[in-house]
Design brief:
Low-confidence stretches: none
InterPro entries: Glutathione-S-Trfase_C-like, Glutathione-S-Trfase_C_sf, Glutathione_S-Trfase, Glutathione_S-Trfase_N, GST_C, Thioredoxin-like_sf
GO molecular function: glutathione transferase activity
Number of strands: 4
Radius of gyration: 17 Å
Number of helices: 8
Order of helices and strands: EHEHEEHHHHHH
Structural class: alpha+beta
Helix content: 55-70%
Strand order of the largest sheet: 2-1-3-4
Shape: globular
Protein name: Glutathione S-transferase
Keywords: Transferase
Strand content: 5-15%
Mean pLDDT: 96
Enzyme class: transferase
Length: about 220
């Protein structure tokens, strides 16, 4: 059955390219699952309509409807798509456990300070509280980037030579700070991002995403 993915149809220009629906679109392309996109207009309040709140009561995107199976939260969706397709999954039980480990590392450890830096830089750069808060966030981000730099010394991807679903989520987290120079000190992380963004599925989903938001 066709998967319906609920994402942004219109959104604040500053966040185009880093919204959480993009990681789900990437997973859909990697998994080659048939899908359609229901683009919601953030400005018109469609994320808080009664119809959409029945799908995601938090009024956030993304969400999917797969033949009546409704799932929200980007990490949960990406894992679900990998399991449904049998792609982006490591083969051994121990490696699957590590995939979950890196999923939570991306979403719970790495992404929060990266997202806060993006929010400050894109929306609150002149606020006094933001000027006081940003240095601590940068220090935290650099600490996490240093860990990833060491992990990626001898690995193409988080689990080795195979691109798996946690790579999508980690790249999405790191993309939050690509407008800064924070990655300049971490060549392994930079190469990892480039390698992941060179994948055909990424280019395909990004092109479709940009066309939808430009319409």
């Amino acid at each position: 059955m066709m998967i319906t993915m609920y994402g942004f149809g219109k959104v604040t220009p500053q966040v185009v390219g880093i919204t959480r629906d993009l990681r789900v679109l990437w997973a859909l392309e990697e998994c080659e699952l048939p899908h359609q996109v229901n683009g919601l207009d953030d400005f018109a309040g469609e994320l808080h309509s009664a119809d959409y709140l029945a799908i995601n009561p938090f009024g956030k995107v993304p969400a999917i409807d797969h033949d009546g199976v409704i799932i929200f939260e980007s990490g949960a969706i990406v894992i679900y798509l990998a399991e449904q397709s049998g792609r982006l999954l490591p083969t051994s039980e121990s490696e699957r456990a590590k995939a979950l480990q890196w999923t939570f590392a991306a979403l719970d450890t790495v992404e929060p300070p990266m997202t806060q830096i993006a929010v400050i830089d894109l929306f609150e750069a002149d606020a006094e509280w933001a000027k006081l808060r940003r240095p601590a966030l940068v220090e935290m981000a650099k600490n996490y980037l240093a860990v990833l730099e060491d992990v990626l010394i001898s690995k193409r991807y988080l689990l080795g030579d195979q691109f798996t679903y946690p790579d999508i989520l980690m790249v999405a987290a790191l993309s939050q700070i690509q407008h800064t120079n924070l990655l300049d000190e971490f060549p392994n992380v930079t190469s990892y991002l480039t390698r992941c963004h060179d994948r055909p599925a990424w280019h395909k989903c990004l092109d479709a995403y940009n066309r939808r938001l430009a319409a």
